């Protein structure tokens, strides 16, 4: 009797990571590149991926973890389709960015660093984005929103529904 075994999307991604890691086996100094590629495949770096990278590159799991947590562009949790970054640099903060951030938290039901349950939105705070003249500024993926007030947050979120 023939059985159909469906490989999950997660398992398929793990397989791609295994294939990608083959080219880095035994290479010194390949940790950052391997982690970047693994995150590109998976979207984040869960523990089982960290273990695969450590084993493949013959480094300790603690070295992999410390590298991931040192660099801000690596993620330990899944990230949303829409990544919201609220600038908390000096100009933005002085003009009320903390209140804008609180409104995003309230509307999305998450805190900074978290992702909504439907993996639609991730919320982060960041330092200066170089748009001080537009303070307070929020970036959602590639879209920049300036001169924000907390009451504009629901309207902005509707654009991504």
From TrEMBL:
GO terms for molecular function: 2 iron, 2 sulfur cluster binding; hydrogen dehydrogenase (NADP+) activity; metal ion binding. Its cofactor is [2Fe-2S] cluster. Its EC number is 1.12.1.3. Gene3D superfamilies: Glutaredoxin (3.40.30.10), NADH-quinone oxidoreductase subunit E (1.10.10.1590). It comes from the Bacteria. SUPFAM superfamilies: Thioredoxin-like (SSF52833). InterPro entries: NADP_DH_HndA-like, NuoE-like, NuoE_dom, NuoE_N, Thioredoxin-like_sf. The keyword NADP does not apply. CDD domains: TRX_Fd_NuoE. Transmembrane segments: none annotated. [2Fe-2S] cluster binds at residues 87, 92, 128, 132. Keywords: 2Fe-2S, Iron, Iron-sulfur, Metal-binding, Oxidoreductase. Binds 1 [2Fe-2S] cluster. NCBIfam families: nuoE_fam, PRK07539.1-2. Belongs to the complex I 24 kDa subunit family. This is NADP-reducing hydrogenase subunit HndA. It comes from Thermovenabulum gondwanense. The gene is hndA_4.
